[in-house]
Amino acid sequence: MSQLTILRYPDPRLHTVAKPVAAVDARLKSLVQDMLETMYEAEGIGLAATQVDVHERLVVIDVSEGRDQPLVLINPEILWASDQTQVNDEGCLSVPGIYDGVERSSAVKVQALGLDGKQQTHEAEGLLAVCIQHEMDHLIGKVFVQYLSPLKRNRIKTKMVKQQKGE
Ligand code: QAP
Ligand code: CO
After folding, report:
1. For 142, which of 24, 54, 98, 137 could close a Cys bridge (C-beta 3.0–4.6 Å)?
2. What is the per-residue pLDDT across 135-156, written as a single tens digit (0 to 9) for each?
3. pLDDT tens sequence across 81-126
4. What's the rounded Cα separation, in Å, for the pair 129 and 118?
């Protein structure tokens, strides 16, 4: 297993649109293990392949208290999203130190392949529903700060660039 480097906003590679995963094979399983290790080490609850510069439709999530219930979504598709929405504070491993409110569907139904290569559906609400929508946005090149006002987004951009220069 190895830890992967997480791209930081405003890295243009974060806006790449991912392609479907072609096969759930040894290479993919190894990538999933590395992404889980990277997410746990960074104390995140979700990580999309886009964030580690792999442009394939793959996300890993773990919203459990014990950090022992990994969810692997391969080629995920939203089957249904509730009309009811809620605003939650979100953060992102690619935008460290920044948290702000984003409005999203309160509940979603998602279809995806599991690590066993079988199609599964997941019904989610609460934090898991928010996290699934946030991670799936990464796969279409979207970062949560794009939901914020241009003023906020520009402030965040400047802060991130300064932070990275100082490292
Ligand atoms: C997406 O984000 C998410 O700024 C996952 O310094 C976040 O795991 C979905 C993190 C919130 C729903 C609600 C952020 C860790 C982790 C930071 C994350 C930081 C350290 C973010
Ligand atoms: Co994110």
Report:
1. 137
2. 999 999 999 999 999 999 999 9
3. 999 999 999 999 999 999 999 999 999 999 999 999 999 999 999 9
4. 21
Determine how many CB atoms are found less than 10 A away from the CB of residue 90. Answer: 20
Render the burial of 28-42: b for 16+ CB within 10 Å, e for the rest: beebbbbbbebbbee
**Nearest atom (ligand 1) to Cα of 88:** 13
Q: Are 62 and 144 in contact (CB under 8 A)?
A: no
Rg (Cα) of the chain, in Å, rounded? 15
Q: Which residues of 126-135 are buried (b: 16+ CB within 10 A; e: fewer)?
A: eebbbbbbbb
CB of 93 sitting under 6 A from ligand 1: yes
Name 140's Cβ contacts closer than 8 Å, sequence gap at least 6: 17, 18
pTM above 0.85, yes or no: yes
CA terminus-to-terminus distance, the chain: 26
* pLDDT value of residue 167: 85
